[in-house]
User: What shape does this take?
Amino acid sequence: MNKVLVIGPSYKSEIITTGEKLNQRQVFNSAFYDDLAGGQYSIAYNLAVLEVNTFFITRFAYDRSGNEMLANLDKQNVTVSFTGSGLVSTPQKTYLFSQQDGKIFDNITYNCYPSVEDNIPSEFFLNTDYALINIVNSNYLQNIMKLYPHVRYICDNNIPADNLLERIEGIILDIDYICNYVDEKNFADFAGQLLYKGINYLLITNKGRGVYIYTRNGNDYIQKENSGRYYIGCHEVFVSMFLASLSNEMPFSQAVDYALNLANDFSYSKAFKLEKEFF
Assistant: This one.
């Protein structure tokens, strides 16, 4: 046990903040920083820090950021299979926080995701407890499931084709992701459709503040009394701890609690670092 395979894109995050109200074509003063955090790279790294035996299939650009990500994973003993696939630079998701609201921009394009032309190393799937996947190519996912039907598959910020849902154990979505498609008041109806088509649960994370839980046994929303102001990375921390807990044979409800507690702690400081002692 305690082996997890992560499949999906790697990208970095840029955070821009301004105290001004933004208008179209406006020049504004801002503070910004970027971080090698985002996507399945962060989850693979976090899992390794939590002492999970982690394997990772991704795509890296052959630039400074890609090389640094690979070096960071190597230090944590993550076993990586990757391709460049024509990526000129590391994909980037940009968060813009202004006086009136927050916006998210990204260039996580189709060719950033592992696909059918990528290698599928068999040793990555042997004795694997869970595979966390973020794949937009349904044929690639279907091929993997046919080759390795014993693995328990969980989707992260991705909803696979209907014909694959009965072979997916669960789906975990960030609230910013799902709100692009479904209004919050319709979460339950949306979850009901996915559960009917085959999955066992849907979790929707809410920036370290709480988590919506939809299962075949009912629905719930667990909310923390207080939360911090830094939520970027909270979803990845939640997913990492949830998977680490499941791979160590922790019950589902306890795994959710552990994951939410750690994501909530993470929200209090942008300099918060995961340590193996958390698990």
Q: What stands out?
A: The first helix runs from residue 39 to 49. DSSP finds seven helices and 13 strands in the chain.
